[in-house]
Amino acid sequence: MAAASPKTALVVGGGFAGLAAAQVLTEQGLEVLLVEQGRGLGGRMCTRTATVPGTGERLTFDHGCQYLTARSPQWDAALERLRAAGAVAAWETGGRVGTAALTADDALDLASFSADKGKELLVGCPTNSAVGRALATAAGPRLTTLTGTRVSGLAWDGSAWRARAGRPPVLSLRVTPGRAGSAGGAGDEAAGSTAGSPASSVDEKEREREEVLAGLESRTFDLVITAMSSVSTAKLLGGGNGNGGGNGGGNGGGNGSVPLAADVAAAASAVRANVCWAVLVALKRKLDLPFDGALLSRPDPSGGPLPQYGAIAWLGRDSTKPGRPRVAGGAGEAWVLHGGPGWSNDRAAAAPEAVARELLGELAKLAQTELLPERDVLHIEAHRWNNAYPLNPRPPVPPPPGSRAAELGPGVLGLGPGGPGLGGFYMLRADMALAACGDWAKGPRAGDAYVSGWEAAHALLASV
Ligand SMILES: Cc1cc2nc3c(=O)[nH]c(=O)nc-3n(C[C@H](O)[C@H](O)[C@H](O)COP(=O)(O)OP(=O)(O)OC[C@H]3O[C@@H](n4cnc5c(N)ncnc54)[C@H](O)[C@@H]3O)c2cc1C
């Protein structure tokens, strides 16, 4: 039986879904602990930094989510708050971001480029990793975040939750091909970045983190919201995390045998995700391409409705985003290349060096130039997204008529008289004060993840 008036909540996952859920909960007066296994907040919206050996030049690459666009009232309100806080700004592309067609042999049909003029593209400032930090700040002082920590088990004893957590052995998958990797430094920009902080405040932060982690297993929570990819959700709630459940008795998840919420785990595991290889490359010179970002596809030759992708599905001139560092004193540029879904899935087990080499060759082919690593490349590395996008997101299941969640109709949830109600983009286990959310429960965009988290928190609060 869940607490009649919940006071504490645990949110697992610090991407858009988890941060949206955390803000709804803190606004309703709950004390929230958000645990994120990565070094920073923001999930798949994040940034890698690298240092060029010899010169010490700092490079940044937004290697995941590229930009944010308006999609729904909840999300649009969040974007406006982020803009007001200076955490996002428009990527002023002058009509230089859009779509272009590939020919049958994967060459670029330059004449086909069509700019996406209708929508504003918002990017993080000074980089995309700022967005997660800003969303956490917006949730206020009732939110505590614990990064670099993986929840390995949860246990529900019939009235409260306990969690087991620890430091993941590897904080993030980082793969850097030989030359750049041996000499340059690179890493994810972390939330609450300590760059520039005096050593004493870094130590202080680390001490606080250790204290929260040490106290975690003796704490109980009235509510839990999981906000992870479909694969991680299925693992944690389906009993496949391998590290044992929490301290409490009752229904323990993550012990490899007892599913904690079998229905949620089954629904999450039905959502497939694809691999996406990202190659981050800084060039010493500029490429003669008539756009700063393009989604590349070709029509299905058999006349089917879905476009087909080649080796590179997206390429973006990252250094043209606002506030990004100049490359090679302005003579060069930073590019982010995303491998096409089929291409990336076929190379899921490939060596990063090979992937980086191959996509550099594909970039040269698209730009009809020669790119020689020694002559033209300042830095190159490859990053594999294992669960990049949900391919078949779970269809919504609106709250049953007559339920308290169904009563949260337009105008009730604080976004004005015409504001949204709950569309059912989450999974709820009211009997165990649990909700699950993430982009897999709505769609493949950041705004979908945000709405899923926002709805999950409102639905859970309405159900206990
Ligand atoms: C290459 C790429 C490009 C994209 N481009 C765009 C774009 O341009 N525009 C757009 O709108 N969308 C884009 N997307 C999609 C968008 O990034 C995602 O839909 C969105 O970020 C998903 O948010 P989420 O909160 O559901 O999941 P995530 O961002 O994945 O957050 C889940 C978090 O849970 C953490 N976690 C997992 N397991 C545990 C555990 N056991 N304990 C603690 N923490 C855990 C993970 O580390 C992760 O940070 C892109 C995605 C990718 C991969």
TrEMBL record:
<protein>
    <recommendedName>
        <fullName>Amine oxidase domain-containing protein</fullName>
    </recommendedName>
</protein>
<feature type="compositionally biased region" description="Low complexity">
    <location>
        <begin position="188"/>
        <end position="201"/>
    </location>
</feature>
<feature type="signal peptide">
    <location>
        <begin position="1"/>
        <end position="22"/>
    </location>
</feature>
<feature type="region of interest" description="Disordered">
    <location>
        <begin position="172"/>
        <end position="209"/>
    </location>
</feature>
<dbReference type="InterPro" id="IPR036188">
    <property type="entry name" value="FAD/NAD-bd_sf"/>
</dbReference>
<keyword id="KW-0732">Signal</keyword>
<dbReference type="Pfam" id="PF13450">
    <property type="entry name" value="NAD_binding_8"/>
</dbReference>
